Amino acid sequence: GQQVMQIPQYQHVQEGEDFTTYCNSSTTLSNIQWYKQRPGGHPVFLIQLVKSGEVKKQKRLTFQFGEAKKNSSLHITATQTTDVGTYFCAESLNTGTASKLTFGTGTRLQVTL
Amino acid sequence: DAGVIQSPRHEVTEMGQEVTLRCKLISGHNSLFWYRQTMMRGLELLIYFNNNVPIDDSGMPEDRFSAKMPNASFSTLKIQPSEPRDSAVYFCASSLGLTSGVGGELFFGEGSRLTVL
To answer: What confidence tens digit (pLDDT) does each residue in A64-100 have?
Structure first.
């Protein structure tokens, strides 16, 4: 079945440092979504990438979809304590009339002053 | 607008008891997902529905688990009998489904934290 691996599992940075998490799939993806889950909270949608090589930015966050549509990355510039949480990629598989979303293993980010 | 509503938020029960978790979708959404989250296994997709019809239940752990969608806005996940290894946070999420061939974003409820003693 589909396997979505994310690395690293955990990263601890000091405020102001950059952070990157990578998502790798064994299959070519239709599209990929990214979510953030704060401690004790629920996953919240960040963005969706559809096209090969696509790059999207949201303030300090940069999302990239690989040319082969088998990997993706999320880069945060100059982290802040509000960035703390677990970041998940989710691969989307269209099944005719619906779309099945399988989540990656997640990367937990800790930011300290 | 109300988001996805789950109940109960917390449930503590004893092994062997029946557990029913409930979910109300966002109005207008036609896809419904049930996920289970644990430290060991992460976010696992249990089952998802489209237009009230179960599309894929391959993630349901075993026959003790069942899910229904009696109407377009409501779903239940039932565990009978419950076991300690079922302890987890169960999330329900809804979406608009496919739009121009692209799946929509998921809106998650706040989750139901289940503890089976």
So the answer is: 999 999 999 999 999 999 999 999 999 988 777 778 8
The CA distance from A4 to A19, in Å, is: 20
For testing the chain A interface, which of B10, B44, B105, B113 should be mutated: the one with the most A CBs within 10 Å? B105
Q: Which residues of A touch B41 (CB under 8 A)?
A: none
Q: Is the pLDDT of residue A8 over 60?
A: yes
Strand A10-14 and strand A55-58: the pairing is unpaired
Stretch B40-68: mean pLDDT, rounded? 93
Q: Residue B15: which of B113, B86, B83 has the closest Cα?
A: B83
B94-104 residue pLDDT tens: 998 766 666 78
The order of strands in the sheet holding B74-79 is B5-7, B19-24, B74-79, B65-71
Q: How far apart are the first and last CA of chain A?
A: 41
Q: Six-digit token pair at A70?
A: 């088998």
User: Is residue B33 helix, strand or coil?
Assistant: strand
